[in-house]
Design a protein that fits this description.
This protein has 24 helices and 24 strands. The chain is α/β, with parallel strands linked by helices. It folds into 4 domains: 192 residues, 3-Layer(aba) Sandwich (Rossmann fold), CATH 3.40.50.450; 124 residues, Phosphofructokinase domain (Rossmann fold), CATH 3.40.50; 198 residues, Rossmann fold, CATH 3.40.50; 121 residues, Phosphofructokinase domain (Rossmann fold). The strands form 5 sheets. A 7-stranded mixed beta sheet has the order 3-2-1-4-5-10-11, with helices on both faces. It is globular, with a radius of gyration of 28 Å. The N terminus is likely disordered. Bound molecules: adenosine-5'-diphosphate. The site of adenosine-5'-diphosphate has 16 residues, from helix 4.
Length: 747
């Protein structure tokens, strides 16, 4: 990557120069941060240096600190680990090591660093920053640097990005790498579950997380495990009996396998470690069943980054680069993370300190404090897991009859949502009814009770076991729908689906006073790959579809390695450009065409000129992503013909319509966790309505991390009904970042 750098010899006025490094444990997605930092800094007119082998590279200097250029970070988004290397550095812990690091930086005119690492790396970098002035004085005294050089670089400005698969940092909703690690774990649990079911075996799966139960808890939810053991929330005394009883109950209710997920730092209430081997021995002894242990280990750090671990680190990397480029010398260093899909800044050392407090709370037995420090949604998911993992208790008072039906197109995660709703509802004493075949099925009487065992195995299966349909009932059918609701004694309705589900329910709401069967509470839960529904920044299924797009484009890119080629990839989304836009951001496409922006001849003319020039300058691959409804006239075929005509034979052009593979596939871990969370909320909300004798109709919304129900009647204010998409899409604000990283600025 890059070339040898001219040293700051103290005679020229150097440009702003920043360095980027990855340090500590590696994590998938670090490359996306590096790419974003390098390209953003170049775009901002700064020089940027890649430091190899983490903080040790700073100490070593020489060819471990290399100037990076635009092309040097091309084609790294899809690679796991970190292409600039990482290390743990004993030298950097010592004063003389940091003195050498300061000298190496000043000699290159660098006084700004983006550090990507865990709390160790970030606090090490902050120590370096705080010592900087003293280090430079020492270097001047030793004659290593000139007084002018020291004058020019009076402060070191740093920004931190957390790269850690554990998701253990306060100050960001997600750390870079955690989502991909969750993918690896859930893939493994899915694989284990099928073999375990064949032999009626039990598996104990140990996952990483010495102080943080995030991976264990979320993988237990997404993998449909029976029991989970995490450091922050040790099980109550007597947990061994409880665990065995639950596993037994699961088996008699229809499970063919049992899976217990253990975080490596799990412990009991007295602080004694709970090991995977210990759990295995217990299960074999008590249940008399063949039990195997799988310790996932470094597999969790491996593999290609997920879609989320490409776009999120891209946003964060871009912001971190701007943070140091624009930093005032005395600015407090910031941790750049993500909160509710937005870049979020927290004072760096405050985040590190609060993160380090959690293991202390665990060690002193303050588990409530530790759970509180993890945040409210973590606590909520512990409660949800307990509701769905155990077979419904028999001692709860009988509840109400709640029906579930699908409407709209297929989306991965529909089954997950039904399973969670059924099990959560049963745990609250409700009778859960499944409607087969959408609204028409309801009219035709295809309604049956769903038991705990009926939804076994649905957590990770794509498609929709209950069936779905885009048909919106006509006004003439409302009477039949109402009669069906009455006939089956349905007291509340959960509609899980896409735009048609919302539209059908909204239309029925207009007429509800006329139909007795409609006098019940109704809530809609958003499942569609298009991500075009109000209230939810990410609908269930969209993360899975994005993952399918990313893996398809990765393969396309590989296929084009040996030629000079432009691909125009058409993705789904109807009139909503989310999949096209986030797909483009996640794979590093050069251009994206959206209906929201329109496709204009003048833009196409510029695009063609840029493309031709870049191939002439040596480019081998150009990727354009087009939303399926971006433009009627400027179709995918048209774009291909246009580009081919203008190529002058310098490159060839291929269309690629990804089509229905985007709707298929098993739901991603995020879609499973999110579907489970929303479904549990919806059941709770419906129960609350019944208890309070209310009959509201709404859709679930997630705003600032908090779930709520928005009245369905407000839908026309929030949705562009003609193009079926939210009026104000949050992700369109990211366009400048996409543009800044896609095109190299002209000299
Ligand atoms: P992580 O960044 O993943 O938490 P470590 O805790 O191993 O990983 O830290 C990575 C590197 O950061 C260490 O090898 C060391 O070079 C540096 N480092 C960590 N803590 C300090 C410190 N207190 N002072 C100086 N350097 C530190």
């Amino acid at each position: 990557m890059g070339s040898a750098a001219p040293a700051d010899n103290g005679t020229v006025s150097p440009r702003t120069a920043i360095a980027v490094l990855t340090s500590g444990g590696d994590a998938q997605g670090m490359n996306a941060v590096v790419r974003a930092v390098v390209r953003t800094a170049i775009g901002a007119g700064a020089d940027v240096y890649a430091v190899y082998e983490g903080l040790q590279g700073l100490v070593d200097g020489g060819d471990r600190i290399k100037k990076a250029d635009w092309g040097s970070v091309g084609s790294i988004l899809h690679r796991g680990g970190t292409v600039i290397g990482t290390a743990r550095s004993a030298d950097f812990r010592r004063h003389d090591g940091r003195l050498r690091a300061a000298r190496n930086l000043v000699q290159l005119g660098i006084d700004r660093i983006v550090v990507i690492g865990g709390d160790g790396s970030l606090s090490g970098a902050d120590l370096f920053r705080s010592e900087w002035t003293g280090l430079l004085t020492e270097l001047v005294e030793q004659g290593e640097i000139s007084a002018e050089q020291a004058e020019r670089h009076t402060h070191l400005m740093i920004a931190g990005v957390v790269g850690s698969i554990d998701n253990d940092m306060v100050g960001t909703d997600m750390t870079v790498g955690a989502d991909t690690a969750l993918h690896r774990i859930v893939e493994a649990i899915d694989a284990l579950a099928s073999t375990a079911a064949s032999h009626q075996r039990s598996f104990v799966v140990e996952v990483m997380g010495r102080h943080c139960g995030y991976l264990a808890l979320m993988s237990a939810i997404a993998g449909g495990a029976d029991y989970v053991l995490i450091p922050e929330n040790p099980p109550a005394d007597g947990w061994e009996d409880d665990m065995c009883a639950r596993l037994r109950a699961g088996r008699s209710a229809g499970r063919r396998d049992s899976i217990v997920v253990v975080a490596e730092g799990a412990r009991d209430r007295s602080g004694q470690p709970i090991t995977s081997q210990g759990v295995r021995d217990l299960l074999e002894a008590r249940l008399g069943e063949d039990t195997r242990v799988t310790i996932l280990g470094h597999v969790q750090r491996g593999g290609t980054p997920s879609a989320f671990d490409r776009w999120m680190p891209t946003l964060v990397g871009h912001a971190a680069a701007m943070e140091v480029v624009d930093a005032r010398p005395d600015a407090e260093p910031q941790l750049i993370g993500i909160h509710n899909n937005r870049v979020h800044r927290t004072p760096l050392m405050e985040a590190v300190e609060r993160t380090r407090e959690i293991p202390r709370l665990i060690d002193t037995g303050d588990y409530e404090g530790a759970m509180a420090a993890r945040g409210s949604s973590f606590t909520e998911m512990v409660r949800v897991f307990q509701g769905i993992a155990q077979v419904a208790p028999t001692d709860v008072p009988p509840g109400s009859r709640i029906a579930i039906l699908h409407a709209g197109g297929l989306a991965p995660g529909m089954n997950t949502a039904v399973r969670a709703a059924v099990r959560f509802g049963l745990s609250r004493g409700h009778t859960m009814l499944g409607v087969q075949g959408s609204f028409q099925g309801l009219i035709d009487g295809h309604v049956s009770e769903l038991t705990w065992g009926d939804v076994e195995g649905w957590v990770g299966v794509g498609g929709a076991e209950l069936g779905t349909s885009r048909a919106v009932p006509s006004v003439e059918q409302y009477y039949a729908v109402s009669r069906a609701l009455e006939n089956h004694g349905i007291e509340a309705l959960l509609v899980i689906g896409g735009h048609s589900a919302y539209e059908a329910t909204y239309r029925m709401l207009q007429e509800r006073d006329r139909y007795p069967g409609f006098q019940i509470p109704v809530i809609c839960l958003p499942t569609t790959i298009d991500n075009n529904l109000p209230g939810s920044e990410m609908t269930i299924g969209t993360d899975t579809a994005l993952g399918e797009i990313v893996s398809a484009v990765d393969r396309l890119k590989q296929s084009a390695m040996a030629s000079r080629r432009c691909f125009v990839v058409e993705v789904m989304g109807r009139y909503c450009g989310y999949l096209a836009f986030m797909g483009a951001m996640s794979v590093g496409a050069e251009r994206v065409y959206l209906h929201e922006n329109g496709v204009h001849l003048a833009d196409l003319t510029t695009d063609v000129a840029e493309m031709v020039a870049s191939f002439a300058a040596g480019r081998r691959f150009h990727l354009a992503i087009r939303n399926e409804a971006a433009s009627v006239g400027y179709s995918t075929e048209f774009l291909c013909q246009l580009f081919a005509e203008e190529s002058g034979g310098a490159f060839d052009v291929r269309p690629m319509v990804l089509g229905h593979l985007q709707q298929g596939g098993n739901p991603s871990p995020y879609d499973r966790v999110h579907a489970t969370r929303l479904a549990a909320y919806c059941v709770d909300w419906l129960s609350g309505q019944i208890v309070a004798d209310k009959r509201e109709w709404g859709f679930v919304a997630l705003t600032d991390g908090v779930l709520s129900t928005v009245p369905l009647k407000t839908m026309p204010d929030l949705v562009d009904m003609e193009f079926r998409r939210p009026i104000d899409p949050w992700w369109l604000e990211l366009q400048p970042i996409m543009d800044a990283l896609a095109t190299e600025p002209a000299e």
